[in-house]
Amino acid sequence: MWRVIVQGHAPDGSPPPMSEPRPTRKVIPIRAVGAPIPAPPPAATPTHAHDGHTGHDDCCTPQDLVGRGLSAPGAPPADAASARYRIDQMDCPTEERLIRNRLEPMTGVVRLDFNLLARELTVYHRLSDTGELEQALTELGMAPRLLEAGARPEPPPPALSSRTRFALGAAGLCAAAAEVVAWQTGDESGVPVVVLALLSLGLAGGPTLRKGWIALRHFTLNIYFLMTLAVVGAMVIGQWAEAAMVVFLFALAEAIEALSLERARKAVASLAAYAPETAWVKTASPPDGVGVAADVWAERPAQAVQIGQTIRVRAGERVPLDARVTAGTAAVDQAPITGESLPVDKQPGDPLCAGTVVADGLVEASVTATAAHSTMARMADAIQQAQSQRAPTQRFVDRFAQVYTPAVVAVAVGVAVLGPVLTDAP
Question: In Å, how far are 162, 319, 347, 353 from 367, measured between CA atoms?
Fold first, then answer.
């Protein structure tokens, strides 16, 4: 048995022009005369179910896979109202745990959903007034801002402002200078060391010490409380340079964490940039002088295009909305969706995903989803919703920390207080 692979070329051997569809590879089996005809291979067993639809092509497209595999992690609780807050001070799981410990025990609170990337908190509740929720968040120093239902949130402020960067750099210099002076003089409690340490604490330690005090008032032994305890302990035993360096390193770690969250937020937001903001839409037009209606195309905002309208995408343009090809053929680069390295041929009846690029050809397509429900929009929403749900491991760590952290603090206090008594040390 031999096989011949035939590539589509013009009769003169030249490659097809760019305006024509991309050639497809065809395998033509060749067998010797009189040779038995091989039995056809068994039908492949589908690797996924097709319940609920009869067509195979529709469910094997990136659009459907995104819709099936990246669904929302949980539906809103029944008979529960929702209140969405913007909290600029909430940028790490530590604040999330502090808010959970304060709001979850409240009567009428059903569920809390956190979106650390957008710094938003959604509270599902059965309360007649949300003033109690806002008061509780204000007591935690979170400064909540109520967002209207369905309103698009404003972009969060920069992770590190110029003032914060300057203060962090100055705090690091002061902490390093305190370490150098203490090492050269051998006096950890000298006046120069204390002054430099206090300057470093004042520049970088304010947020940490304030959050540590809030955690102590609400009986939450989180990392801020432990850092505050370490700083106070270092100052009590005269290690001022160490106290300043510990606070600076912790502030630096928080700054790096904030920058990483900001980078992740921008990466998620960049998904929406793949789809263009405008689309060429076919509009109704009166017949011309001989009674023949001509196609008229108008550029419209993608947000205003409705399902069922016909759009046109030419070579080199991005598909603005999810659609299905009704006329024309094209080679479409689906790398932003599927990661495929080669363009995929599209013919009438094939789906198009928003954000993909028409590399060759021209197609007309009927819109199947609005801009708010396109493939890219659903991917971005699914990423944000997925990170707002706690994994089982995270829930276990939180429960373990509720026992482990107080136990370690109690042991440390016991060693510090009872150690000298039991060992007769001065």
Answer: 45, 11, 15, 10
| H helix or E strand, kind and range, residue 29 | strand 26-30
pLDDT tens-digit readout, 379-401 = 877 776 666 666 677 778 778 87
Closest by Cα among 91, 262, 251, 261 to 169? 251
State pLDDT tens for residues 140-149: 888 888 887 7
- Are the C-beta atoms of residues 109 and 125 closer than 8 Å to each other? yes
Q: How many CB atoms lie within 10 A of CB 260?
A: 11
User: What whole-number distance in Å separates Cα of residue 62 and Cα of residue 70?
Assistant: 11
> Token pair of 414, please?
């016991």
Sign of CA dihedral 346, 350, 352, 353: negative
113 in helix, strand or coil?
strand
Contact 319, 355 (CB under 8 A): yes
How many CA atoms lie less than 13 Å away from 325 in the CB half-sphere?
Answer: 23
Identity at 412, one-letter amino acid code: A
Write out pLDDT tens, residues 234-266.
Answer: 998 889 999 999 999 999 998 898 888 888 778
Task: Please enumerate in sequence order all residues whose Cβ is within 8 A of that of 74, keeping only pairs 6 or more positions apart, or say none.
Answer: 389
Contact yes or no for 331/360 (Cβ under 8 A): yes
The CA distance from 374 to 132, in Å, is 37
Neighbours of 83 (CB within 10 A): 17
